[in-house]
Specification:
It contains two helices and no strands. It is an all-alpha fold.
């Protein structure tokens, strides 16, 4: 599955479609953590992701 399809599936975010209705094309993807950290710091953003919460159990079928 491509990144574009994964984003659409998980977040209902179509990165290949512009708000104006036109098509978009990814020309670059930054995957190196050091580069991403440098860009985020330059923008004044925290490069560390927020802490994860523990998984919560969901009772899908109701508790009797």
């Amino acid at each position: 599955m491509t990144w574009a399809r994964l984003l659409k599936h998980v977040f209902d975010l179509d990165v290949e479609r512009c708000d104006c209705g036109g098509n978009l094309k990814l020309i670059a993807v930054i995957e190196q953590p050091e580069v991403i950290e440098k860009i985020l710091k330059h923008m004044g953003l925290d490069p560390q992701p927020p802490p994860r919460d523990k998984a919560r159990r969901m009772d899908l079928f109701g508790a009797d």
